Amino acid sequence: MTLMPYIQQSGSKQAANNPANGRETAADTSEKFVQNLQALEEGELAVDVYETDEAVVIQSTIAGVRAEDLDITLSGDMLTIKGERKRDLDVPEHLSLYQECFWGPFSRSIILPVEVKIEKIEAVMKNGVLTLVLPKAHKERTKIISVKNEEE
After folding, report:
1. Domain of 113: which CATH number?
2. In 51-124, which ranges are continuous DSSP H helix?
3. Does the residue 120 lie in any domain?
4. Is residue 14 part of a domain?
5. How many domains is the chain built from?
6. Under DSSP, is residue 140 helix (H, G, I), strand (E, B) or coil?
7. For burial by CB atoms within 10 Å, which of 4, 18, 53, 81 has the most?
8. For 102-128, what is each residue's pLDDT tens digit?
C-alpha cells in the first residue's frame, strides 16, 4: 500500500520533496511492525490457566493450527505447548493492506503449581480453542511422624 502525500494547493517545495514532512506515515509504521514480527524467531502463545479442586486447566485460542501440528510435553512441573501457524495463501507484500496475524512457529511454557497425573492428562481442540485438563495428583501433604523411644 502506498500513501500519497497531501500537498497544499500553493505547493511548497518542501512539502513536495518531503511527502511526510518528517513524520512517519501509516505505511512506514505498518511496514516496521511486520518487519519486527518477521524478525522474531518464535511467537508466544497466549493462555488462560486456572485451577479447580480436581485439576489445572489451560486454555488457548489456536485458530488456524491443526491438532497434529501441536507438540505438547510435560517435563517435571513444566508444560510446553509448541506449534506452527502455517499460512495457506502466499500474499505478495505489495498487495497486503494489513498484516497483524502471527504466522510461524510459537511456543509457551507454563510452570504447573501442583503435581499432576501424567497418564490422565486430556487435550481437546474445539472451535480453535485448545483445552488441556491436568488432573491433580492429590498426594498427602502432611504426615505425622512418630518418634521411637530408644533407651540406652
Report:
1. 2.60.40.790
2. none
3. yes
4. no
5. 1
6. coil
7. 81
8. 888 999 999 999 999 999 999 999 999
Q: What is the pTM of this model?
A: 0.62
Place 32 in a pLDDT band, splitting at 50, 70 and 90: low
- Tell me whether residue 10 is in a domain: no
Instruction: With H, G, I as helix, E, B as strand and everything else as coil, classify residue 88.
Output: coil
pLDDT tens by residue, 57-66: 999 998 888 8
Grid cell locating 73: 510435553
Q: Which residue's C-alpha cell is 488432573?
A: 135
In the DSSP assignment, the letter for residue 94 is G
From the list 75, 78, 81, 74, the residue with the least C-alpha distance to 129 is 81
- Check if the beta carbon of residue 129 is closer than 8 Å to that of residue 110: no
In a domain, 118, yes or no: yes
Domain encompassing residue 118: 23-135
Phi, psi (deg, nearest 5) at residue 31: -65, -40
